[in-house]
Design goal:
Layout lengths: L5 E7 L32 E6 L7 H4 L2 E3 L19 E6 L2 E5 L5 E5 L5 E5 L30 E8 L5 E4 L6 H8 L17 E6 L5 E6 L26 E7 L9 H15 L1 H4 L3 E6 L6 H14 L6 E3 L8 H14 L1 H39 L31
Helix pairs in contact: 6-7
Length: about 400
């Protein structure tokens, strides 16, 4: 299955049904009064995070989704049926934004999280709501509201603890195969990896973390070189970046120091927050360097490169040094667990507050709509002598013609 991490869709919530103006007409009850019911509420559109999905391919070709319209009200105080809601399922980590306003609609960062993304229209009011002591035969009704329409941009950001960075053929896929059960494609040509890969690294039965491998970066990615920046978004949720550097490149003219600095510069161009994340160096492919030259090669690289927080010397192919690296990562994540959890709780609280504020605004708009409809004075009270004519047929048809026997 192809990996798609971006899509654009349109969602249409259902319109509300119209209210009706009818009057009760039964034998021995000549002046039954108004009996028109309200229209049903239109169906809404919800987004749900589903851990069983890992791509947005379902929304690549089907791009328009419509909820049902509410039914119109009926006579005899019958209310219209509400339209059925529709639920759209997305991979965990999907960010939904309004394409026109760039407003954040939902961040589906937990399995099962449900967010309303388009609300159905309120049903119109029937004439039973407009009766009063001075208007005993109201002919007023209101139409249903239109449902919300949104043009949405979907962006998938995978959830991982560690993100792998590096030039093409730096050994990222080999490393993730070495330390986890993931089996990404490995070959001897650049850009073998064309989509992000996730692997679970288990250090003990109770301790593990998730590592993300993305396609390689090259200098000029910000200008579209190679695969560009399009996959760096998948590293934005990680807690530490692992920068793999090939110390034994096939090209004799390649400069590992310049290549490593180019990667860091591309990070800075893409996102300052991503650039400022903890970043460790993993000097890879030491198995291709004669053992007596390794120490000198590593020292020369570190002297020429900028100071780093931590560095490790590994051979991903043979597994040399990888065990110490993954245990160091696990210890770092365990030490940062409280901070990571605090950030997660703060993020969830902010998201809940935003959604509550949005829901309150929608409720206030509904209340204002109902209040405006009830206070509207366009429907004036009928004179007393007109009340006898304010009756309709059994099924809520037009008023009875003059002279028709009752």
């Amino acid at each position: 299955m192809k990996f798609f991490d971006e899509a654009r869709i349109e969602v249409y919530a259902g319109d509300g049904g119209n209210g009706v103006a009818t009057f009760r007409r039964e034998k021995y009850i000549p002046k039954g009064g108004p009996s028109g019911g309200d229209g049903g509420r239109g169906g809404s559109v919800y987004a749900v995070a589903d851990r069983n999905l890992n791509t947005l391919i379902d929304y690549r070709y089907t791009r328009s989704f419509r909820a049902d319209r509410g039914e119109n009200g009926g006579s005899r105080d019958c209310y219209g049926k509400g339209g059925d809601d529709i639920t759209l399922r997305f991979p965990v980590g999907t960010v939904i934004k309004d394409l026109e306003t760039d407003e954040l609609i939902a961040d589906l960062d937990e399995d099962g999280k449900t967010v309303l993304i388009a609300q159905g229209g309120r049903g119109g009011l029937g004439n039973i709501h407009f009766k009063s002591s001075t208007n005993r035969a109201p002919r007023k009704k209101t139409m249903g509201q239109e449902g919300e329409y949104r043009n949405l941009h979907l962006e998938l950001k995978v959830l991982a603890d560690v993100g792998l960075l590096g030039m093409p053929n730096a050994g990222k896929s080999t490393f993730i195969r070495s330390v986890s059960a993931a089996k990404p494609k490995v070959a001897d040509y650049p850009f073998t990896t064309l989509a992000p890969n996730l692997g679970v690294v288990r250090t003990t039965e109770a301790r593990s973390f998730v590592i993300a491998d993305i396609p390689g970066l090259i200098e000029g990615a910000a200008e579209g070189a190679g695969l560009g920046h399009q996959f760096l978004r998948h590293l934005q949720r990680t807690h530490v970046l692992l920068h793999l550097v090939d110390l034994a490149p096939f090209d004799p003219e390649a400069d590992p120091v310049a290549d490593a600095r180019a990667i860091v510069e591309e990070l800075r161009k893409y996102d300052e927050a991503l650039y400022n994340k903890p970043r460790w160096l993993a000097l890879n492919k030491l198995d291709l360097i004669p053992e007596e030259e390794r120490a000198a090669r590593v020292k020369a690289f570190l002297d020429a490169y900028d100071p780093v927080e931590r560095h490790f010397e590994i051979s991903a192919l043979k597994g040399e040094g990888t065990k110490g690296l993954i245990f160091a990562i696990q210890d770092f994540l365990d030490a940062e667990r409280d901070r990571i959890e605090a950030e997660r709780v703060a993020r969830q609280a902010a998201e809940a507050a935003r959604l509550a504020q949005l829901e309150a605004a929608r409720a206030a708009a509904d209340a204002a709509y109902a209040q405006e409809a009830l206070l509207d004075e366009d429907d004036e009270a009928l004179p007393e002598e007109a009340l006898d004519d304010a009756e309709t047929g059994r099924d809520g048809d037009d008023p009875l013609p003059e002279g028709r026997p009752r």
